[in-house]
Design goal:
- This protein is about 25% helix and about 20% strand.
- It is an alpha/beta fold.
- The protein has one domain (about 15-275): L-arginine/glycine Amidinotransferase, Chain A (5-stranded Propeller), CATH 3.75.10.10.
- The strands form five sheets. The chain has a three-stranded mixed beta sheet, with helices on one face. Strands 3-4-5 form a three-stranded mixed beta sheet, with helices on both faces. The chain has a three-stranded mixed beta sheet with strand order 6-7-8, with helices on both faces.
- The chain is globular, with a radius of gyration of 17 Å.
- The chain binds arginine.
- Arginine (ARG) binds next to loops.
- Arginine (ARG) binds near residues 78, 174, 175 and 269.
């Protein structure tokens, strides 16, 4: 079946976000971060608020976790866990600068009705794990370890497809690949979009085979963090800089919403990084 001309359906989402009240860049753990460049915390909060309010306007639910003063990267809640069916696999951050966020996320899951699982292996949550239909796409190469892929396969009893990232600018899977259809019929191919050059050849071949209808995004759109986007199946929120990707989405019947998180890009994060999916028992 062609993926064109389909009536796109918006699916209700529940997200976890963290207001960037303490946002700054005072260390560098990815190529986007330059502590010598000034940041503007008020601007970060204002830009973040636009994304937050858009989710509400689209009918989604947003939960908030309190920002910790010593953890300026906590705004990137995608790294705070990976949640399916009410089970929240906690993070174990690669770098010490973010290590202290992990217990805060685990406590939040515990206090909010999720079954929190403390991980054995290094992983950065939904930054590197994306649910695509029944399977989990899992990134490695920079942050989450191969061993964490095996750990989530066992925990969630799902097939995990490992993908190797090779470009340091795209250090988390969610900077190079986005799932456009969060809910599909069993066995159906969910719409995804990805930046082929961010992956090694073996991973590109896997993606081409498993997702023949995927949108392949141009390097120019990838380079402006265009793939770091959120979708409910109909509404896709992307960076205004990713103009080519926007056109590809419209052509396939998605509704495109532009939100500029330029301030948060100074920390190497964007729309998806600020958004963690809370999949409950029934979703
Ligand atoms: N400064 C953060 C880090 O390097 C940015 C995290 C972005 N998050 C994401 N899901 N891609 O860890």
């Amino acid at each position: 079946m062609s993926t064109h001309d389909t009536a796109r359906i918006a699916h209700h989402r529940r997200y976890l976000m963290c207001r960037p009240e303490h946002f700054t860049v005072d260390y560098s753990i990815n190529p986007w971060m330059d502590p010598a460049r000034p940041t503007d915390t008020a601007n970060a909060v204002a830009q973040w608020q636009v994304l937050h309010d858009l989710y509400l306007r689209l009918g989604h639910e947003v939960e908030l976790i309190d920002p910790l003063p010593d953890y300026p990267d906590m705004v990137y809640t995608a790294n705070g866990g990976f949640v399916i069916g009410g089970v929240a696999y906690g993070p174990k951050f690669r770098y010490v600068e973010r290590a202290g966020e992990a217990p805060a996320f685990i406590d939040w899951f515990d206090a909010n009705g999720f079954t929190a699982v403390t991980p054995r292996e290094t992983n950065e949550g939904e930054g590197d794990f994306l649910l695509a239909g029944e399977i989990i796409l899992a990134g490695t190469g920079f942050r989450s370890s191969d061993a964490s892929h095996a750990e989530i396969a066992e925990l969630f009893d799902r097939e995990v497809v490992s993908l190797t990232l090779v470009d340091p600018r795209f250090y988390h899977l969610d900077t190079a690949l986005t799932v456009l259809d969060p809910v599909v019929e069993p066995g159906a191919e969910p719409g995804i979009a990805y930046l082929p050059h961010a992956f090694d050849e073996a991973s590109q071949a896997i993606l081409a085979e498993r997702f023949p209808n995927a949108i392949r995004v141009a390097d120019a759109d990838g380079a402006v963090f265009g793939l770091n986007s959120a979708s409910d199946g109909r509404n896709v929120i992307i960076s205004p800089r990713a103009t080519g990707f926007g056109a590809q989405l419209r052509e396939r019947g998605y509704e495109v919403h532009e939100v500029d998180l330029s301030e948060l890009l100074l920390g190497g994060g964007g729309i998806k990084c600020c958004t963690l999916e809370l999949r409950g028992e029934a979703s």
